[in-house]
Design goal:
Rossmann fold, Alpha-Beta Plaits, six-stranded antiparallel sheet, about 70% helix, elongated, disordered C terminus
Length: about 1200
């Protein structure tokens, strides 16, 4: 395998397409400084996947694209293609010729291709892995990088050895396996956490799920049985009502016949009654006189009897009261003595308790004070312990640092003298060349300053343009969002309007009769009013099934609509004629209206047309709306007038005291809020439209402003390009001087820096050493001081703890005594209060009985002084005279009455029959009204409990339903539902989901465990393979390095060692070299030339152990003299099977080349290529 050719276009200074043909042997690329010859090695590194701009000698990756020149525009893309001959199949791909292509655009996009097929960077790296030609391998050594091979840290040198050992692919796969193992372990932990979490709640979920399933089954049974019970009751009541209608009609006919008979008999009686009226009047007058006389006689006799009885009662009452007064006086005296004794004992106990409390407070105060002192001392002890520990660590650290500094100082002294001599020689060369640069740099700086000012202005305007673009995007987003929101609101509005038009949510009967368009129908109750937001539930609850009532003009309109419903079996509805409905007056107590929980009367809270006032006051005029159920219960006490109270949340308190509440699907509330929502939607759509218009105007203004800003940026960019062309010309002139100084300058700076670093290290180490000695002494003194303080604090703290224990026991004892006294005081206070109450009761009883006794004595005196012996003989004579007159009148009346006997009996019989028929009719009408009320109540229950109308419930009717069985099932299921308590219906679905997930995760966990076992096995096998291959390759490289070092240096000694022989997979690699005539020393103490030769020896040792098909070296021999370059070039010739490409400007190297390529820059900023084959070689 070898390089066939390299194709470049727009890469760095190669603006035009360039093709470099590679041949076997050694190819040298030569050219003056700044001509772009190192760009060839950069191109090879870049196409093989280099991602670091710094490694490619740039600041950012887009700098690999040709930036333009005085006469050429910048390129928009860089492209490099490397063609490799793969005849021997080194690359793992089924092609004898492989082309690798990389492209990069100024937009930052990159493309990778293998044989013109798009691929990933990873594919290219895997293709060349373990071949030695990767960007991190040893086949490409960039400019100034040769010495880094030996100057790097021991750990960093492993990359070359691992590439040579061919373990990079194994290591990559191992790292990938370890990452996958780590990810798998994390997944296992996550899976276990989830499984544990699921296991902790799956049993509860299962129980909840079974409970919910049972609940749904029971609820279905309950609903079915209850609905059928209600339907059967309604049917039975309707059957009875039909029979009652027939009976009422029959009784009305019979009453009509009897009324006609009664009128005929009454005419016959009228004449006879006139004859007897005069006798009746005379008899009445005589009777009145007689009754008055008799009344006078009876009044005198009764008064005498009553006064005698009252006197006897008052005498016995006097005796009883005197006995009770004596008993009450004795009890009062005993209780007052007991009260005095109790008060005296209570006073003594209060004084004792007060003294006890003072002693307890004093004990608590003493205890708290000592406890705080103990805590403070404990904190001081902990602080001292931490200080002692810190000082001990600082002392140990100081001793270690002093030992390290002593060893370092001896090495620094030796290296300082060597560098000082070399630096003196380098400075002379540097000063001669440096002066030539100053004049040109001054001109170049002025141009750069002007360009920076322009660039700053461009950035400022570009930032402004970006801000405007963001604002434009924001406005466009706002406009789109407003339009989308407006469309959504329009769709919602249209949907609600269609629902309104189609009476969605109403019963079938409502929909049918409203679509039938019967004249005189105004509309459904729910659509003829507007309900304030927040009161929908309250109004819905108050209306109940009345929500679906229909308002019409007259009774005839209602009658016509009902006939239509009957004819079409379209259900039953309630109609409210405006002409008939009258609402009674409902006076709400003023105290209720002023209550803070009172919201209002339901009919006053809604909006409707005035013509429906009677309707809505009839429906809602006796409904009071309040805030909460507690306030509703409170306000319902004593409320009269048939009012019902409804809370904002929908609970109902009836005038009877019954309370209804709970929750069900809020369907009707949507019916109430539709019209309000339509109005709200229209307002929101209008606002969105106005906002969109304003945003569109802002958008237009921003676009105009953006165009102006872009014009300014274009003008500035044109001026900046002119400055860049001028700056490029100046930089080309400077480049010639700088390239000449580059090697000397780098060497001088490196030596000066090394000298400065060594001086600083020496000074710093001396200062540090002295400071360490001084601080170590201070730390030891401080340690002794703190240890003594700690001992004192510990002793003092022990004494405080003993004192604290004694105080705590004292505090506990005082607390117990104080609690005992308080308990005794409370009991005594309770007893004293009871005695005081008893004394007050006795005094009140004694006073009331004394007052009663005085009243009894006064009444007895009044009775004894009265005179009841009035003579009543005169009244007796007058009564006898009147009795005789009445006897005469009675005889005359009997004669006239005989004439009326027959007629009176006949009309009496008629009236009895008529009253009986009317009573029967009223009873039947009452029963019929009760039946209608029962049907309405059952219908309301259907709606309240199951949200069903009669028509909807009919779908659930069971033709084989048995009433007794249904009632029993309803009672049993209702009891079981109550026993179930709170039920989570969602647990059914949740348990199913969690169970599936649980089984899935358990299977996943098993798969993860299997994968972890397999990955651990792979990692173990990989580690063994890497270790064996690395050890074998390292031993070969060590042997080769020792031989090649001696050959290149003409003697000396060198070796490679592992820092940790027990861990070859991670150990760093140390390089020790001893050039001829010098002592064995570390690689970091060698001169620049010695480092370069040592690095070349190591590179050749690696190539000899594992030859690569080709090797690119960019000025690796720049720091060597001619003799060493000759040795280097001759040794390259020994690698006959390796294709070498050297970028150089050393004549000694060119003399050994088989093919020469020359890079020139005839046009400023653009590199050109010239080739010279072996047969054309001339004297250089």
């Amino acid at each position: 395998m070898y390089f066939k050719r390299l194709e470049m276009h727009g890469f760095k200074s190669f603006a035009d397409p360039v093709v470099i043909e590679f041949h076997e042997g050694m190819t040298c690329v030569v050219g003056p400084n700044g001509s772009g010859k190192s760009n060839i090695s950069d191109a090879i590194r870049w196409v093989l996947g280099e991602q670091s701009p710094k490694t490619l000698r740039g600041g950012k990756m887009e700098e690999v694209i040709f930036a333009g020149s005085a006469s050429r525009k910048p390129r928009g893309m860089a492209e490099v293609t490397l063609v490799i001959d793969n005849t021997n199949g080194t690359l793992d791909i089924d092609y004898s010729e492989v082309s690798i292509t990389r492209r990069m655009y100024r937009s930052g996009e990159s493309e990778y291709l293998i044989n013109n097929a798009p691929c990933r960077l990873r594919d290219i790296r895997e293709l060349i892995m373990d071949t030695g030609i990767g960007v991190d391998g040893y086949s490409i050594i960039g400019q100034g990088r040769i010495a880094d091979i030996v100057s790097n840290k021991p750990e960093s040198r492993r990359e070359i050895f691992e590439e040579a050992a061919g373990v990079v692919s194994y290591k990559t796969r191992k790292l990938d396996a370890e990452r996958r193992l780590e990810t798998t372990s994390t997944n296992l932990l996550r899976a276990n956490d989830i499984i544990n979490e699921i296991e902790s709640r799956i049993d509860d979920l299962k129980n909840d799920s079974e409970k919910a399933k049972e609940y749904l089954s029971l609820k279905s049974q309950y609903e079915s049985s209850e609905v059928n019970v209600i339907l059967r009751n309604i049917e039975n009541i309707q059957e009875k009502s039909e029979k009652m209608d027939d009976d009422i009609f029959r009784l009305a006919n019979e009453i009509s016949v009897k009324n006609a008979d009664r009128e005929e008999v009454e005419k016959i009686l009228e004449s006879a009654e006139n004859d007897i009226r005069e006798l009746d009047e005379k008899s009445d007058s005589t009777n009145r006189q007689l009754l008055q006389v008799i009344q006078n006689i009876n009044d005198h006799e009764n008064k005498k009897k009553i006064q005698s009885q009252k006197y006897e009662f008052l005498s016995s009452e006097e005796i009883r009261l005197k006995e009770e007064i004596e008993s009450f006086s004795e009890r009062l005296s005993d209780q007052e003595d007991q009260f005095k004794e109790s008060n005296q004992e209570l006073g003594q106990l209060l004084q004792t308790a007060k003294a006890s409390q003072i002693e307890l407070d004093k004990s608590i105060s003493e205890y708290n004070k000592v406890d705080e002192d103990k805590m403070r001392r404990a904190e001081e002890i902990e602080d001292l312990k931490e200080q002692i520990l810190r000082i001990s660590r600082d002392i140990s650290k100081s001793e270690n640092e002093k030992s390290e500094i002593s060893s370092m100082n001896s090495l620094l002294e030796q290296r300082y003298n060597e560098i000082l001599e070399e630096l003196s020689q380098t400075k002379e060369s540097y000063n001669k060349i440096n002066q030539n640069l100053l004049d040109e740099e001054s001109k170049e700086q002025e141009t750069q300053k002007e360009s920076q000012i322009i660039q700053t202005d461009i950035v400022s305007h570009q930032r402004a343009a970006d801000e405007k673009i963001e604002k434009i995007k924001h406005e466009e987003t706002q406009i789109s969002a407003a339009k989308l929101k407006s469309e959504q609101l329009l769709s919602r509005k249209k949907t609600i309007e269609e629902m309104e038009a189609n009476y969605e949510g109403y019963n079938y009967g409502v929909k049918y009769i409203m679509k039938y368009r019967v004249s005189g129908l105004r509309g459904v109750v729910g659509e003829l009013m507007l309900v304030p937001e927040g009161l929908e539930v309250a109004i819905e609850t108050a209306l109940g099934g009345n929500m679906q009532n229909i308002i019409c003009n007259s009774d005839d309109d209602a009658k016509m609509s009902i006939n239509i419903l009957k004819q079409n079996n379209a259900g039953r509805l309630t109609f409210l004629p405006i002409s008939s409905i009258r609402a009674g007056k409902a006076d709400v107590p003023p105290s209720l209206r002023t209550d803070k929980e009172f919201i209002g009367i339901a009919s006053d809270m809604i909006s409707y047309d005035d013509e429906y006032d009677e309707i809505f006051r009839y429906l809602l005029g006796r409904i009071i709306i309040v805030e909460t159920m507690d306030s509703a219960i409170r306000l319902s006490k004593g409320l009269k007038g048939g009012f019902r109270i409804v809370t904002r949340g929908g609970e109902i308190i009836n005038s009877s005291g019954a309370i209804t509440g709970g929750r069900y699907k809020n369907k009707s509330a949507n019916l109430l809020s539709r019209r309000a929502e339509i109005s709200k939607l229209e307002n929101e759509i209008r606002l969105l439209t106005e906002d969109a218009k304003l945003s569109e105007q802002n958008l237009q203004n921003l676009k105009i402003s953006l165009d102006d800003t872009r014009d300014i940026i274009d003008e500035m960019s044109s001026k900046l390009n002119k400055n860049k062309i001028l700056s490029s010309s100046l930089q080309s002139k400077l480049s010639m001087y700088r390239d000449s100084l580059e090697t000397v300058s780098m060497k001088k700076e490196k030596l000066e820096q090394q000298l400065y670093n060594i001086s600083e290290d020496r000074n710093n180490s001396s200062d540090i050493f002295e400071k360490l000695q001084s601080s170590g002494k201070n730390l030891k003194n401080e340690l002794i001081k703190f240890e003594k303080e700690l001992e004192k604090l510990i002793e003092s703290n022990n004494l405080v703890e003993l004192n604290l224990k004694e105080l705590n026991e004292k505090k506990i004892s005082k607390t117990i005594e104080n609690n005992r006294l308080q308990s005794k005081i409370e009991n005594l206070e309770s007893m004293t209060e009871r005695i005081r109450s008893e004394v007050d009761n006795l005094k009140a009883g004694l006073q009331s009985r004394n007052e009663r006794l005085e009243t009894v004595l006064m009444e007895k005196q009044d009775i004894s002084e009265g005179n009841l012996l009035t003579d009543i003989s005169q009244m007796e004579d007058e009564r006898n005279t009147l009795d005789e007159a009445l006897i005469m009148i009675s005889k005359d009346k009997e004669t006239v009455a005989s004439k009326l006997s027959k007629a009176t009996k006949e009309i009496s019989s008629i009236r009895e029959e008529l009253e009986k028929l009317q009573s029967q009719k009223v009873l039947e009408e009452i029963k019929l009204a009760k039946n209608q009320t029962q049907i309405e109540n059952l219908t309301q229950r259907l709606w309240d409990e199951f949200e069903m109308s009669i028509a909807q419930a009919a779908d659930m009717k069971d033709p084989n339903f048995v009433m007794a069985t249904g009632i029993k099932i309803g009672r049993e299921t209702r009891k079981r539902l109550r026993e179930l308590g709170d039920v989570n219906i969602g647990a059914i679905k949740e348990y199913e989901d969690v169970s599936k997930r649980y089984e899935f995760l358990k299977a996943q966990r098993e798969d993860i465990l299997d994968a972890m076992t397999e990955l651990q096995s792979i990692i173990s096998d990989m580690s063994t393979t890497i270790k064996n291959k690395f050890r074998d390759s390292f031993n070969h490289i060590v042997t080769n390095f020792e031989e090649i070092f001696v050959e290149l240096f003409g003697g000396g000694y060198a070796e490679l060692t592992l820092e940790n022989e027990d861990d070859p997979l991670n150990s760093g690699i140390e390089i020790v070299a001893q050039p001829p005539g010098k002592k064995l020393q570390n690689i970091n103490l060698m001169s620049g030339g010695e480092k370069t030769m040592t690095a070349i020896a190591l590179m050749f040792a690696v190539l000899k152990a594992k030859p690569t098909p080709f090797c690119i070296l960019d000025e690796v021999e720049a720091a060597l003299d001619d003799n060493n370059i000759d040795r280097f070039s001759k040794y390259i010739k020994k690698f006959e099977n390796i294709q070498f490409v050297l970028v150089t400007h050393q004549k000694a190297t060119m003399e050994h080349a088989d093919v020469l390529y020359g890079v020139t820059m005839a046009e400023q900023g653009v590199s050109n290529l010239l080739s010279l084959k072996l047969g054309d070689k001339f004297d250089i």
